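Q: Could you write out the predicted structure for this multi-component system? I'm mainly interested in how the pieces pack against one another.
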Amino acid sequence: MSQVMDHFLQPGGHSGSFMHRLDPRVKVVAVAGFVALSTMLTSRTALVLAVGFLLVLTAAARLHLRQLVSRLLWLLPFAGVMILLFPFIIPGEPFWRWEWGILTLTATREGWQHALMLFLRVFAAVLAVNFLMATTGLRRVLEALSFFRVPAVFIQLIEFTIRYIYVVGDELRRMNTARAARGFVPGRHLFHLHTFRTLGQTVAVLFVRSWERGERIYHAMLARGYSGENRKRALPPPGGWDLAWGAFILSVAVGLRLFELGGQIWLMSLK
Amino acid sequence: MHIPDGFLDPKIWVGASALSAGALAAAVSNTRKVLEDRQVPALGVMAAFIFAAQMINFPVAGGTSGHLLGGALAAVLLGPWSAGLILTTVLVIQMLFFYDGGLTALGANVLNMAVIAPWVAYGTYRLLGGLFKGNAGRTAATFLAAWLSVMAAALACSLEIAFSGTVPLAVVLPAMLGWHALIGIGEGLITVVVVSFVSRLWGLEQPGQKSYAGGEQL
């Protein structure tokens, strides 16, 4: 987990392509707009083009795809399971059948197409967010958000939380090690109460330790003159080059959406 | 339960984002009155705690496992407004770093897990805690609060996905509610242990008392 976070905490990344130097506000708007528009796409052609465009951007920014693939594994519990189930739950023309005793699984063409569409949408969105985070870095993304009037409480909360995820995470790891050293083996089902008592106590001790640590940190910060005010660094206005790139990224998304709408109207006029 | 991008219709995600933004604005003003910006470091550590607690897996059945959502835990121990801020922070970080939950779906995810879950938990806890006195009563109230908070979040999530036309309601509703009825048991058991442990350690009648002292008034 911490390698993933370290990767993003480096502001701007190490390869330093020109994408890394674009204005963070322009990138936030362009990427958010691209994601919003691409989640509305329904045709496979338009979605494949959107994914292709983002792959080109990713390559132009010299980002590593391998790290991205490992990150995609985080999506599996929810998106992956749903997408895998679609061919079997959406009714339609069957095209694949698997029989095992009394159990029959039928995959439908409609379901498969639906699953593919959702997969492409999720993939496009992940590529876009990855592009933003990996070329901009957390600090500059937060500066951009603060420019867009996101309340300072949230910006500060995100910063503090990321700082202490490492600390609390280390604490949890040590507690896990200690529990394993005492011979704790988790049960295999919900009714193994010993497991839940032990895990609950882990969470409880972690809670109390975090709470006390939070108070200590707060007092230490007060002692050093913390007043809750955040020094704000004004970002310089974006240049023409930044705006041109932002407009280009957004216009690709708008173009794909129009292409799809136009394609539908064209198809309907044929009927 | 993190909805990714592309699963929600624009009407749904824009609507959910507007609701979440309203709830968060209320949370910011309700915590600021007494909490003030100065306590932000303490809330940040609690958000880091929820983040870590969500990584603890518990066994469900047949080799599958679930993990804590933490909505009920945060709402009972810290109050529902603070819980909303903390869980939103966790969701934003999960979206940005782990691509868990989509950018456009953030509003819906915040609504389900940072607004609905803590408020359902808090409402249930206060209601039942008032009805049943004593230790057993509080245990039952905590367990039900946690279980219902998971079910309410799963219900909201299913409705959002179904009304977006992504999955038929008849498919997503039983699947999500069925699975989360089991996950909710784990959530309830762990929340009960944590709440009773913490209130015994702090010597409190009501676990929320400490957070009132820290700021939130309800």
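A: Regarding packing and overall arrangement: Chain A has a mean pLDDT of 82.
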